[in-house]
Each structure stands twice: as structure tokens, then as C-alpha cells.
């Protein structure tokens, strides 16, 4: 019969390890989504009193929000974003945006004034992205009057802390390339970077074809794992020149 190769055994072992890793990631996402109030131990972050703003900040699942707040979130998103969507090749669709905002998985961070009126919100999710556990920020939208007062940065800081607490690996966002203000906000002020899953990065020859970029910022755990070499090159689907 000859000698039996160890290759098959090693492959099987690797597959089992990958399956276990994936199952652990799903468990973390599930636990994050089961939280009653992710900000329960973050009292100092529930108030924003700076630069003329006096706001209370809450974190809730969309199902726990009142209809007026959800309707307001849709309106401000439409006001802020419709033109950008229309100028891109995505187009704007009321129904699709409403569906996205109200999917079961949607979490909301809402900043309200002292009359209870919403001023800013973020729609985010604890989710899997390319086999990694992440906090994905779908929207961060501020009323015009509340901008450039540090509120956006404060809310993103909260998301980064929530991601740390839930042991996610990174916070991700998708940004239109032509939305230069928000690109500056994420890339320059918050030190986000082009994510390894950004389509332009994966396919540089076609980069100009994409009207958007995927940006991310590692959590504490994500940065640690990256340092340990546990990143996309340890068996992931990508092969990036900058990290492989
Ligand atoms: C994932 C997505 O949702 S992408 C879409 C993002 N949302 C939008 O485009 C909607 C309209 N814009 C907004 O809601 C807000 O302006 C945001 C969320 C982009 C930024 O929030 P803000 O509270 O205004 O930003 P904040 O005051 O925290 O700014 C922090 C820093 O970011 C940078 N920055 C913020 N806004 C801008 C801008 N318009 N132009 C250039 N740099 C900016 C600056 O460095 C700023 O620091 P500084 O004011 O000391 O110079």
C-alpha cells in the first residue's frame, strides 16, 4: 500500500479549525445582538453637552423605537443622501432605504435634544462580513445645525467602544467617493483606512468603476489579532499585495 500522506489529515484539521473559528465568530455576533442595552455601562457617553449642543444619546434596536423616530431617520437620510445616491450608479429608492433601516438586525444610536426631538442618528449592525465579526455602521446622519460640533466624532467613538465591548474585530462603513466631507471625516479625522474588502483594493485595475469605498477601523481586539498575524492572509479568500 505504501506510505499514507499526512497532507489529507492536515487539510482536515485546518478545515475543522476554520469551522470552529467561524462558529465562534457567529456566537459573538449573536451575543452582541442579544444585548438589552449595549450602552448600559457607558453612562458618561449618554450625554453630549458641548459646543452649544445639549443632547441625550440612547442605543436601541429598531423594533424598540417609536414610529416617529424611524420616520425622522428616513427623512434625514433622504435629505442628506438622495442627491449623492442619484449621482452615483446606485440610484435612490425610498422603499429599499426604508427596508434597510427597519430590518430586524438594525440597531440605532439616537441623539435627542431636551425636548426629545432627534438631532442625529446612526444605524449600525453587529454582523458577519467576509467571515469576520464586525460592527457595520450603515448610516451616520446629523441635522445641518448640529454639524462640525464634534457630535459625529463622539457618536463614532461610541460605536468603536460598543464594538470593543462586543469583541468585534472592526468598525466598517461604506462611503461614496464623491462625498468628500464624509471621506475627510472618516479618513482624516477618525483615522479609518481602506478596508481589505474594498472592491477597488481587491481589483485595482477596475478601481475607478466603483463609486464607493469600504473603510474600516480595527477594534482593540482586531488590532491585536492583526499584530499576531491572524488576518486575511491566514486562509481568507483575498490575496492583497499590501498584506500578503
Ligand atoms: C456611513 C455613512 O453614513 S457615510 C455618510 C455620512 N453622512 C453624511 O454624509 C450626512 C451629512 N453629514 C453629517 O451628518 C456629518 O457632517 C458627518 C457625520 C459626516 C460628520 O459629523 P460632524 O459632527 O459634522 O463632524 P465632527 O464635528 O465630529 O468633525 C470631526 C472632524 O471631522 C472632519 N470633518 C467633519 N466634517 C467635515 C467636512 N464637512 N469637511 C471636511 N472635514 C470634515 C474635520 O476634521 C472635523 O474636525 P474639525 O471640525 O475640528 O475640523
List the defining traits of the structure above.
8 strands, disordered C terminus, 8-stranded mixed beta sheet, globular, 244 residues, binds acetyl coenzyme *A, 7 helices, Aminopeptidase, alpha+beta
How is this structure best described in words?
Helices cover 38% and strands 24% of the residues. With 244 residues, it is α+β, with helices and mostly antiparallel strands. Helix 2 crosses helix 3. The protein has an eight-stranded mixed β-sheet, sandwiched between helices. It has a single domain (12-227), classed as Aminopeptidase, CATH 3.40.630. The protein has helices spanning 7-33, 67-87, 94-101, 151-165, 180-189, 199-202, 220-227; strands spanning 47-50, 53-61, 107-112, 118-129, 132-142, 170-176, 193-194, 212-218. A hairpin with a 2-residue loop joins strand 1 and strand 2. It contains seven helices and eight strands, in the order H-E-E-H-H-E-E-E-H-E-H-E-H-E-H. The model is unreliable at 231-244 (pLDDT under 50). Acetyl coenzyme *A binds at residues 80, 137, 139-142, 147-153, 173, 175, 179, 181-182, 184-185, 188-189.
The radius of gyration computed from the alpha-carbon positions, rounded to a whole number of angstroms, is: 20 Å
The gross shape turns out to be globular
What is the ordering of alpha helices and beta strands? HEEHHEEEHEHEHEH
CATH superfamily: Gcn5-related N-acetyltransferase (GNAT)
Strands ordered across the widest β-sheet: 1-2-3-4-5-6-8-7
Mean pLDDT: 93
User: Treating each run of at least 4 consecutive H or I residues as one helix, how many helices?
Assistant: 7
Task: List low-confidence stretches.
Answer: 231-244
Structural class: alpha+beta
The amount of helix comes to 25-40%
The domain tally reads 1
Under the CATH scheme, which architecture would be assigned?
A: 3-Layer(aba) Sandwich
Amino acid at each position: 500500500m505504501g506510505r499514507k500522506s499526512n497532507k489529507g489529515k492536515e487539510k482536515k484539521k485546518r478545515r475543522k479549525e476554520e469551522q470552529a473559528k467561524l462558529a465562534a465568530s457567529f456566537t459573538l455576533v449573536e451575543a452582541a445582538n442579544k444585548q438589552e442595552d449595549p450602552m448600559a455601562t457607558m453612562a458618561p457617553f449618554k450625554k453630549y453637552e458641548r459646543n452649544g449642543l445639549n443632547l441625550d444619546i440612547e442605543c436601541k434596536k429598531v423594533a424598540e423605537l417609536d414610529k416617529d423616530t424611524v420616520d425622522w431617520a428616513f427623512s434625514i437620510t433622504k435629505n442628506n443622501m438622495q442627491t449623492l445616491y442619484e449621482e452615483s450608479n446606485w440610484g435612490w429608492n425610498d422603499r429599499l432605504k426604508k427596508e434597510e433601516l427597519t430590518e430586524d438586525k438594525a440597531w440605532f444610536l439616537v441623539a435627542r435634544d431636551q425636548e426629545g426631538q432627534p438631532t442625529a442618528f446612526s444605524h449600525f449592525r453587529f454582523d458577519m462580513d467576509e467571515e469576520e465579526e464586525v460592527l457595520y455602521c450603515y448610516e451616520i446622519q446629523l441635522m445641518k445645525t448640529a454639524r462640525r460640533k464634534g457630535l459625529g466624532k463622539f457618536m463614532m467613538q461610541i460605536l468603536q467602544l460598543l464594538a470593543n465591548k462586543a469583541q468585534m474585530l472592526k468598525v466598517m462603513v461604506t462611503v461614496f467617493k464623491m462625498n468628500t466631507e464624509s471621506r475627510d471625516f472618516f479618513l482624516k479625522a477618525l483615522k479609518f483606512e481602506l478596508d481589505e474588502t474594498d472592491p477597488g483594493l481587491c481589483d485595482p485595475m477596475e478601481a475607478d468603476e466603483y463609486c464607493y469605498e469600504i473603510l474600516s477601523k480595527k477594534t482593540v481586539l482586531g488590532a491585536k489579532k492583526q499584530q499576531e498575524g491572524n488576518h486575511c492572509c491566514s486562509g481568507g479568500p483575498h490575496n492583497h499585495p499590501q498584506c500578503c
